[in-house]
Design goal:
Shape: elongated
Helix content: 55-70%
Structural class: mainly alpha
Number of helices: 10
Distance between the termini: 86 Å
Order of helices and strands: HHHHHHHHHH
Strand content: under 5%
């Protein structure tokens, strides 16, 4: 009675809330996974790592994650396909960089390979050309070697193979009227 006289607070200082019984590890694991999946898709390994960090027992994690895979809440193949499409289109990343990102997220190598098949080499080279065209304007006025290093370096950081990068840069500079001889071996 005295607690109600003090403004309806219980012993924990919470107003009008009753203590909930502690959750089982399974309930905790499901709640963690659902909260993480609400923000954005995740791989099975990302969720497993999150559960591990929160002290969920391994067998409980595996059980919950397997169930979520069965019902389609976790789908590493779909995640990989969407990742490749999004990161290639949005950031201009090439196969090598995309593969590395997917591996760090715990996507199995066969699923990575399947997802990268969605990106053909013509599409990859076209994206490299678009990236170089955008960056080309910012390099005007610089000496040729510096332009080559900047443009090829930008493509390399995005995972493009050296041969493709140099070919795309050479063509862009030639189209601009720049002398691109000796471009195969910039020094």
């Amino acid at each position: 009675m005295r607690e109600q006289e003090r403004g309806g607070r219980d012993r924990g200082g919470r107003e009008g809330r009753q203590e909930l019984p502690p959750q089982s590890p399974e309930e905790q694991a499901r709640a963690i996974c659902l909260r993480l999946l609400t923000g954005s898709p995740r791989t099975r390994r990302q969720l497993a790592d999150a559960l591990h960090k929160r002290g969920i027992p391994e067998e409980v994690s595996q059980q919950v994650l397997s169930r979520y895979e069965e019902v389609g809440l976790i789908d590493d193949a779909a995640f990989a396909g969407a990742w490749v499409e999004s990161r290639h289109r949005g950031r201009g990343l090439a196969r090598r960089a995309l593969a590395q990102e997917l591996r760090t997220k715990g996507v199995h190598a066969t699923l990575v390979a399947d997802a990268l098949e969605l990106l053909d080499s013509d599409q990859e080279e076209e994206t490299a050309r678009e990236l170089v065209e955008r960056k080309l304007r910012a390099t005007r006025g610089l000496e040729r070697d510096k332009r080559i290093r900047r443009l090829a370096g930008m493509l390399a950081r995005k995972g493009y193979p050296e041969g493709m990068a140099l070919r795309v840069v050479r063509r862009a500079l030639e189209a601009e009227g720049e002398d691109a001889d000796d471009l195969e071996h910039p020094g």
